[in-house]
Input
Amino acid sequence: MTPIQYFFLFTAGFTLLAALGVVTRRNVVHSALLLVVALFGVAVTFAILEAGFWAVFQVLVYIGAIAILMIFMVMLTRRNVADETYPEPFNDNMRLAFLAALLVFGGLALTIGGWDAARETMTVPLDYDALREFGRAMVSPDGYLVPFILVSVLLLAALVGAIYVAVLGNKSQEERE
Amino acid sequence: MSFFEDPIKFLAGLLQDLLVSLNLHPIAITVINNIVGALIVSSVGLVIVIFLIWLERKLAARFQDRFGPNRAGPFGILQSFGDLSKLVLKEDVVPDAADKIPYNIAPILSIAAVVLVWAVVPFSVEWIGTDLNVGVLYIAAVGSFGILSVLMAGWASNNKYALLGAFRAVAQLISYEVPLIFALLIPVLLARSMGVNQIVGAQDIWYIFVVPVAFGIFFIASLAEIGRTPFDLLEAESEIVAGYHTEYSGMKFGMFMAGEFLHSLTLAVVTAALFLGGWRGPYVEQLPLLGPLYLFLKAGFVYFLIVWIRSSLPRIRIDHMLDITWKFLTPLSVVLLMAIALTDALLKEFGQINNTALYVGAMIAVNVVIALLALFAASRLNSRQRRQIKTFEPRPLAVPPKPAAPAAASTSEEASA
Output
């Protein structure tokens, strides 16, 4: 094994341990902080695979935006840090959830295992700019232009919907008063 | 190769020869080389910050017509060392009800988030920690660890003021990240690369002269990102004690403090690299040693601006602070980005992309037009808001129950206006 493989194993184990901590911690804020650690582990894995753009975006989007919003929500709903009366993290649906997780993992493993492109190697020229190619693929009609625009429209709809709900909520509250 | 031609390469060569002569495994040599490089790059910032605190105190004193520190050493330059030893020797108090692990990680994360940025800062033609092809995005991404550290500190302290400070800080930092990233994208668009060194290399004309509005947006947003006056609402001492680091003492507080100073310098250096031509200057290709000198001269100018603004302006109110970014800077930066992209594409279409004079002229014209339109719209919006405030109904509590109302209502109207 090369050192980079050892490093990969270390990172993968670290990420999985943190992910396990997310579901087993009783303190919800600790779960959220461990989620940040797990997401960072994924970013490091991207960096090991020399996908710098994805590593940076993993940190920017998942840690910089999503994880911080989650922590924010958790903090706003808890009254006291020293309050030790946390609910039991598992309930009776645990076994079902475990089964569902196992099925999803099995399905993904089978799909990727049976996909020839995952095992193919490809030699790229030295001045190959993956980022440039990615950008071209995103805006070229033979590439991913249609899905890209569809996702943008979806996000825009979500944004407009959120604003509408927020404004409508305020209005109905005023009317009630 | 002699020492004075390129000292960094000379020393790196010496280290390489030493490690090879020790008969180490080639992978071990790479690892040791990288660790030494990372240590040097991160120490540069951490050592500079000691003198930066002295410089800032001196400058702020001059703006306020005082002398500033002037007892310890010549011009008081040893003052920071005294402060530092005081912070190290102070008792480290941890609140009993604090959440111990996040409480202790937060100050480390706060300073690490800033030091990480130095990895992509180009000091000279070839002196750069690592020439990432997504350097600009990396700068934005690393900043999110700073937000995380503020949030952790505020929550783990288990203190109302700390938590309030943390909420304010996150609202401010997340909001100002939007125009900051849009403004960062404009040099990327002009240089056609996300690598910081490529952006510096592409600045035959400094980008501050090509896209002055982008520089303005970036400067204001970075003032908010470092939490300096007029945007220091995260530690507004008249309202919330000291914000998120209320419960910290000793060197843990010192780390937040050093992180803040270093953050100012770091963003000044980044501004210098993206908009003021970075290490570029006369004779820098022949003598790489001049690169850091030019870079820090330009960064020093930006830092001076930051201190100047800090000592001149009062703190702004929190709703105004959020209004500036969401209602003014964000739309302005989006419109500017689209206009610059369109101008660039049009010039490319007509084959004028290499006509520097026309290119720069068109860009400046677009900037000026957008800036004037934005200021016009902002002043219209502002005056409309003021009129709205004047037409407020008198509050029911202020109206007396008996018919002697008219006189009392007019005074209450004055009070509410």
